[in-house]
Amino acid sequence: MRTIGYLLVTTLLLLLAAGPGQWAWQGLDRQELAAYLSGQLEGAKPSNTYLQQGENWLEFQLSGNGSSLHIVSNASVQRTQVADNDMVWWYAFHYQLLDSGGKLLREGEYHHRTHITQYHEPRHGHMVTRTFLLDPQRVPTDGRRMVVPVTKADRPGRLRLRVSHTDPALLDVMFRVYEKETFSEHKLDYRWQRLNEPGKQVLARGSVYGPEHLRATEQQNLLRARWRPLGPAGITGNDYLSRKVYVQQGIPGAALDDAVLPYGLYVDSDTHGIIPLPQGGGRIQLQWTPAAAPAGTDEQILVRWYGRNLDQRSETSVPLADPQGRLEAEYGEGLLEIVSGHPVVVRAFLNDNEATEITPEATRLRAYLPADSLPLVYQIDHVGNQITPLRVDVRTLLTADDSAQQPVHFEILDATGKRLAAGVLHQDATPSRYDRLLTVEPGTRLSEPARNYFNLPGDATELRIYSMGSSLVSAYTRPADLVREVRYPEDLVYAQLDERDAQRQSAWFVLQPSNGQELLVSLRTQQLLLQNRPPVDDPRLLAGQYGWEDYQPDGQWTGRHLLLPRTGGLPLRDLSRGVVYAELPANREITAVLRDFTGHRELRPTLIFQREQGQPAELKIQLDGSPWYETQIIGRSGQLPLPVTPAGKHEIRIQGPDAARWYMNYLDTQGPTYVRRLAVKVGPDGLEFRYRKQTAAAEVLTGQLYQMQGERIRLHVEIEHERGPQLQPLAGSTFVKRIYDLRTADATRVTVLNTDSGTVDGGRRFFVPLGTDLPPDNYRIRIWPEQDAAAYLALYRLLPGQQMVRAFLREHGNVD
Question: Which helix (H) or strand (E) holds 540?
C-alpha cells in the first residue's frame, strides 16, 4: 500500500510540474500515462484523428462561414514495413460537399502517395519517426494535405469522407479536418486577450519579437483567419473510430531519406549525366558530392568527352574518394558524359575570369500513365482542313519483376465519336541511361522513348490512348507547314551561356491532354528529367568499312576542286588513296611508298601545286635518280597528271620554285593528309539535286558549304514531297522544308584549285535527313542561299559497311 501511494503522489507531482497546456490537463488514460512516465511522449503533441467505421461516411458539420477546408490524412502500416526507407504507398478517398439540406454541391476523388520519413536520433542512436501511435505494432505514414476551396455561393453545411482505394499494405487511413475561420473586425480586439499563453505562442511563432511585443494590428492579422479543428458527427465506435496521433515538435537528428538533393546533375549506376560544353571549350572543372555513403574506396567516376569528329574522343577515370572531389582538365567544345556506379551530384564550371557555372538545367516533362478505365485524351485542333502532324512518345516504367511490356492501344475519333482508326503504339524495352523520373525511385527505370508519328486529317478530332501496363505517354504537335530552322554548329551540343543565344526554334510543341487534371488527381502522371544524348559511333566507320557517294546537281553547273585538310577521324580507306594527298618537300630527295587499293603493280599519280606567284616556272621530277617528269607550270595552283609508275618504294625529288607547295596522291604516309573534293558553285538561284532513296530506313545526306567570305549564311533546303494522311504510327517524320543558319567552324583558308587567287573558308557542315516516313523513291532536293553568296557546295552520303567495288584495269605490254 505504501508503494502504491508513493507512486500516485509521484505521478501527481509530475503531472502538476508539466504545467498547463501539457499532459497534466488532457485526461490521460492508462496507456498514455504509462507512455508519459516512460518519457515516450516527451516533446510530443497529440492530434485527434478519425477513421470511418465499416462502409459509413465520415461526416463533419460545417459552419458555412469558412473560406476553405483543410483535410489532413495519415495512413498506417505494420512496423515491419518501416525498415525500408524507399517504400511508397498510395491511397484514395472520395469526398462530398453538401448544403444544409443534404443537396450535393461538389464531389470528387483525391489520390495521395505517401511514405515514412525516418530520423536518426543521436541521443539514443536509433531511428525514430516524427509521427507515432501508442500501438507499438502500427506506424503512421507522413501526413498528406488537401485544400477544398469554398465559395460564398456554395454555403456548404456538411463534408463527407470515405476511403475508396488503398495500397494492400496499408492498414487504414486517418483524417483530420480544419475549417478556415474569418472573424469580423469588431471581434478581433478582444479575442487576443482571451487566448492563453500557449495559444499566443503558437500564433506568434513566425515573429522574431514574440507575442508580448506584437502591435495591435499584428495581433489582429494573426487572428484574422485561423484553422478550426472539426470533429465528426455521430457516436464514437458506432459511426466512426477515434485515434490519437502524436507529433514530435522537435527532433535533433537528420532525416534519413531526405529527398532534397544538392544542386547539380544527379548521376548513379542507372543514370549517366550529360554536360554540354560552350563554344570553343576551355578549362573545365567538375565538382562532385556523394549522394549516399560510398560502398567502397575503389569506386571510380568516369568522364568521357565527345567532340564533333570521331577523332575527338577521350576518357578519364577519377577516384570517387578523391579528397578534393573534383577534376580539372582542358576540353574542346562538345559533350561530357559522367558515369558513376555510386550516386553523386556533379557541378561543372568553366574556369574563365569569373569561373562561370555551366551545370545544365534538366529539361522537365510531365508524362501521363493511361489506363483502360481512364484513357489519355487529346483534342486535335486543325488549321482549316490541313493535315496536323502528331507525335506520341511512349516510355515504359521498367522494374526488376517486369515479365513483358503491356501493349499501349490508341484510337482516333471524329467529331461524332466515330472511330477512324485504331491500333497499337510502338514501344522500346531498352532502359534509358539518360532520362529518369524526377523522384529517384530505386529499382525503377525509364525505357528509351519510342516515337510514333501521325499525320491526322481534318476530320480526326480526338486521340484516345489506353493501357493496362505502366507506360508513360507524352504527345506533341506542330504546324504542318512549319519550316525547321537549325543553327549549326550551335544547336548541336554547345552549352548556352548567354540567354539570348539560348533562343532556338522548337521542332515539336507539347500537347496537353484534355483530361490532364483528372489524371493528375488520380496519380496517373509523372515528372521526367530529360537530357541530351552523346553521339553513337558506328564501329564500321571506325574500322574504315564505309562507302562515299557524291551528288552533282541537275542542269548546267560549274565546280572546282578544293584541297581540304583531312579531318573527321575516319580511317583512310585504300579506295580513297586516289583523292587523298600528302605534302612533299621541294628540292630535296625523299623516300616514299606508292600504293593503291587494287594491289596491282602500276598506278598514275597526280601532282598538285600551290604558290603565291603566277609567273611561269620550270618543274623537274626525278624518280629513283632518273628523270621522270618535266614541264613548265603557270598560275598559282594546278593539277598535273604524272606518268604511270610501278607501285612500291621510290626515291622522289621535286625541283621547282622554293616558295611552292607540292602534294601527291597514292602516298602511304602517317603525316597530315589532304582531300581533293569537287564542290559545285552556288549561285543566287540555287541548285537542284535528284536523290534516289533506296531503302525504307532513314537516310542522311551531308552538306559542306565553303564560302569565300562572310561570317554566317542562311541556306534553304526543300525536299519535294506530297504529304498525305497517316492514321497508323510511323517511326519517323521528315521536315521537308528547312533553313540552316551556318557558321564556319574553321578559320583556315582553303585553296580553290586551278584559280589565280580563289580561296574559301574551312567549311560549314549540315545534315539533310530523309526519315522512314519517306518511302523509297526519287526525290528532288532544292538548295539555295537566302542572301547573295559566293560559295561552293559538296553534297554526299556516307554508307557504313562493306561496299562492292568495281575495278577497271588496263593491261600494258604483250600477253603470252
Answer: helix 539-542
272-312 pLDDT, tens digit each: 999 999 888 889 999 998 887 665 667 889 999 998 887 78
473 neighbors 376 (Cβ within 8 angstroms): yes
Distance, in Å, from the CA atom of 562 to the CA atom of 558, rounded to the nearest integer, reads 13
The H or E element containing residue 355 is none
Q: Which of 88-102, 118-132, 354-368, 383-397 has the lowest mean pLDDT?
A: 118-132
- 100-129 mean pLDDT: 78
Closest-CA residue to 307 (of 269, 285, 333) = 333
**Cα–Cα distance measured from residue 618 to residue 240, given in angstroms and rounded to the nearest whole number:** 111
**Cβ atoms of 563 and 676 closer than 8 Å:** yes
d(Cα 395, Cα 474) in Å, to the nearest integer?
9
Which of 103, 97, 111 minimizes the C-alpha distance to 161?
97
Dihedral sign of CA atoms 179, 182, 186, 191 in order: positive
Torsions phi, psi for 237 (to 5 deg): 90, -20
At position 211, the amino acid (one-letter code) is: P
Number of neighbouring beta carbons within 10 Å of residue 420: 16
Q: Could you tell me if 469 and 396 are in contact, meaning their C-beta atoms sit under 8 angstroms apart?
A: yes
> What gap in Å lies between CA 65 and CA 682, rounded to an integer?
77
**Cα–Cα distance for residue pair 327/345, rounded to 1 Å:** 14
Min mean pLDDT across 170-184, 570-584, 619-633 is at 570-584
Q: Which pLDDT band, with edges at 50, 70 and 90, does 257 fall under? A: very low
CA distances from 299 to 271, 295, 317, 686 (A): 16, 8, 10, 57
Query: How far apart, in whole angstroms, are the C-alpha atoms of residue 295 and residue 189?
Result: 61
ω before 489 within 30° of 0 (cis)?
yes
